[in-house]
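[Q] Does anyone have a clean structure-token version of this?
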Amino acid sequence: MNPFLHRVRWFMLLFMVPLLSIALQAQAHHGWAWASDEEFELTGVIVAVRLGNPHGEITLDVKGERWVVEVGQPWRNERAGLTDDMFAVGRSVTVHGHRSARPGERLMKAEWLTIDGKRHDLYPDRRS
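[A] Here you go.
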């Protein structure tokens, strides 16, 4: 075998395959693959906030349980009419979306949120 081709194959095995695996895992988390297909809704009070990329997260107190809710990237929140101030600790929010497919995990991805009686669609093209 050509020594150059031999080195290229080893490069692919040693570096490219692990990188591809990491990329696929990141896509699975930041897409919808980790979430169930079932529609889910909860209402709670914001107790913690982390906004920014790759997506924001709010933590809600829902009847004594803590739920982490993925909201949109900054541009998606803005497009939905959400401002950072609207995610204030102590504010009540209703979230509609999909919960984690892992049993017992209190994590969900929001499709839309209702704050102060107004609905904010993060994914307006998605049927829910």
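[Q] Thanks! Anything notable?
[A] Residues 40-121 form a domain with the OB fold (Dihydrolipoamide Acetyltransferase, E2P) fold (CATH 2.40.50.1010).
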